[in-house]
Design brief:
This protein is an alpha/beta fold and 307 residues long. The chain is built from eight helices and twelve strands. The longest helix is centred in the last third of the chain and has 31 residues. The mean pLDDT is 89.
């Protein structure tokens, strides 16, 4: 654990990604495209993949704990769990009841125990510097209008837990013969797109772009999250600077040094804040002088706003 001070540099961190889809769409094969990765197989289906890397076959939760305790994962950058349902609904569901028989009679507490054990596992991997990717099957449902919906095939409360801890959650499917992972929000599928990736095509095994595909996707996600955090820090610093504006000199300095240098996407919300703050001080935009001044009528766009 390290202290990150306000306005300080925000480093990249390990991420959690969830990819789910129908059987046969190439989820496990895609997972094996990652560099320096190991796959924990709970589904007994790794050998059906079109490309195979390092694998740990686990029969129960204790097998995974054992590998973690002896440092098996230490040499890997990415840990892939195939499937999320196998870990949450099968292995952990059985494990927590064996540790406390009372949980067999209390499903609510049993789900809670599963959640705590699962979060510890993910935290241990991330603290070790590993990115974690969960593979899941697709569970089809139907909304009130009869439209088919898609979500990871994991029991309700466990599915909610998986979504909460994930930085990215994508639906892998085939569109016009192309395998794609859709992270963007949609009406008929569950997704999460913290990194604003939208949709990405998965290369075929024979393509040069296949090797390292998942690693590049993870790297893009980590960079986007870091850039977003950095932008938020900069925006927050601008808001702090705006609160220090006390007179015309401060107002013009803020406009030139802060507002004018901001990315276009951030100017609109900042413009509203800036003009409201200046208005409270009786400072308006003077079109003739091209400066903010006290005691002038609203000009420029009719609202006293030069932006």
């Amino acid at each position: 654990m390290g202290l990150i001070k306000k306005g300080g540099f925000i480093p990249q961190r390990p991420i959690v990604m969830v990819v789910y889809g129908v059987p046969g769409c190439g989820k496990t094969t895609m997972a094996f495209s990652a560099d320096n990765a190991v796959l924990i197989d709970t589904d007994k289906g790794f050998d059906r993949a079109g490309y195979i890397g390092d694998v740990i076959t686990a029969e129960k939760w204790e097998d995974i704990q054992q590998e973690l305790s002896v440092g098996t994962f230490n040499g890997y950058s990415t840990i892939i769990v195939d499937t999320a349902k196998g870990v949450l609904d099968d292995y952990l569901w059985q494990y927590v009841a064996e540790q406390d028989k009372r949980l067999e009679r209390n499903q609510l507490k049993r789900y809670g125990a599963v959640g705590e054990e699962f979060k510890r596992f993910v935290a241990d991997l991330r603290n070790g510097g590993h990115d974690v990717v969960f593979i899941a099957h697709d569970k089809e449902g139907m909304d009130n209008n009869g439209n088919v919906t898609h979500s990871p095939s994991v029991t309700g409360q466990s599915r909610d837990l998986l979504n909460r801890i994930a930085d990215q959650e994508g639906y892998m499917h085939i569109v016009g013969g192309r395998r794609v992972i859709t992270f963007a929000s949609g009406e008929y599928w569950v997704s999460k797109d913290t990194a604003a990736i939208g949709e990405v095509e998965v290369p075929a095994v024979g393509d040069d772009a296949f090797r390292g595909f998942l690693s590049r996707l993870i790297a893009d996600t980590k960079l986007a999250i870091q850039q977003h955090s950095t932008a938020m820090v900069a925006y927050q610093a601008a808001c702090d600077r705006l609160q220090e504006v006390a007179d015309e000199k401060d107002a013009n300095a803020f406009y030139k040094e802060v507002y004018a240098t901001m990315p276009e996407s951030e100017k609109a919300p900042m413009s509203s804040l800036m003009m409201a703050a200046f208005d409270k001080l009786g400072i308006k935009w003077d079109k003739k002088s091209g400066k903010f001044t006290k005691g002038v009528k609203d000009e420029a766009d009719g609202k006293g706003n030069p932006a």
